[in-house]
Amino acid sequence: METCTRLMLINDDAMFNYSHKKTLAEYRYTLQVEEFTNAREALMFVREAVFPGPCVILLDINMPAMVGWTFLEELERINDPAMSKFKVVMLSSSVSSSDVMKASQYKNVCGYLINPLNIEMLNDILLRNGILLARELKRNG
User: Fold this and answer.
1) Number of domains the chain is built from
2) Hey, which residues does 139 pair with through a beta bridge?
3) How far apart are CA 8 and CA 85, in angstroms?
4) Rounded to an integer, what distance in angstroms lies between the CA atom of residue 126 and that of residue 78?
5) Do the Cβ atoms of 24 and 33 come closer than 8 Å?
6) What CATH number has the domain bearing residue 19?
7) Torsions phi, psi of 8, nearest 5?
């Protein structure tokens, strides 16, 4: 089991990113969260970033400039073994079964969730993929 200390939120709606970040904080996760409202900028960040461990990406599908599908295609084109550290969970308003099926075709995608973020379902997906989100330990006293 690997512990994830970094998480990327990629959604063109800044309010969704804010809400998801707040939800993660409420559950006492101690993640370094990177927020992006532009998938192109997020892709540039991924290309340049160095991550010692896994990084979870919560990715929206329908965004201007670059849709989530294009982001995934570009991620797969990066010829670097380090890209396997990026685990993508689609987090979208789309309930279309064709979107769920399409998402499963990408090697970095490990799950699909419907907005709003459900922490229990996210943890279930990540645990099945050998990943724990970093969390603050409760202290006695």
Assistant:
1) 1
2) none
3) 13
4) 23
5) yes
6) 3.40.50.2300
7) -115, 130
